[in-house]
Amino acid sequence: MSQADGLSKSKSGSMDDYLAAANIYKQILETEPDNYDATWKCAKALRFYAYTAQKNSVDGWKKICAQIGKEGMTYAQKAIDMKPDQPDGYYYFALNVGIYADGVSILTALKEGLKDKTQTSFEKVLELDKNYDNSGAVLGMGRFWSVLPWPLAKKKKALEYYREFQSTEFFGKEPESFVYISELLIDLGGKKNKEEARQILSTFKTDSPFFTKWSNELQAKL
After folding, report:
1. How far apart are CA 10 and CA 210, in angstroms?
2. Which of 128, 129, 141 shows the shortest CA–CA distance to 177?
3. 5 pLDDT band (50/70/90 cuts)?
4. Cα distance between residue 18 and residue 44, in whole Å
5. How many CB atoms lie within 10 A of CB 202?
6. Per residue in 100-125, pLDDT tens?
7. Non-local CB neighbours of 42 within 8 Å, separated by 6+ positions
């Protein structure tokens, strides 16, 4: 398992690395189906495989996100069933729903009944370990409430989570945090919010084609 852990440890890894890691975890689970670490780590590797496809805007990334996100949810749910008192399964279930929704659309994910499970999964992570994965669940909850369609969206609630995330040492370390928060500020409107969004985006640097395009589109609205 150490080989797979090494391949999937970095968040800047390649798709090949994440896929190789996921396949190793799957091989382990063929003989050790109750191996908790291999189960949740497989869900993690799958999510980052799909996320990297999206981030790099590879051909067919939406199809990859749809397929792999769904598979990742399956492994994450197994991890939840194994150890419901640990945050790993809940966290990667929610993240895989997110990447799945990016592939099939939020409306499709909602029609499949994934809203409540995503919300409760993030909330469970916050209950168990708010700092898990650099406070990723705090950022995730902000994104969750900001992207839901009317009348489900709660923009002010989303901003509360984003403000909490901005107060941590982890703000700015993930490219999506810049665009998530800026997008919400622009949606909320007002001179002050737009000026803050402009300032955040002016410091945004990434080699991701996907997030660069998103940032440019947001700046065009200011």
Report:
1. 19
2. 141
3. low
4. 9
5. 10
6. 999 999 999 999 999 999 999 999 99
7. 22, 25, 26, 29, 72, 75
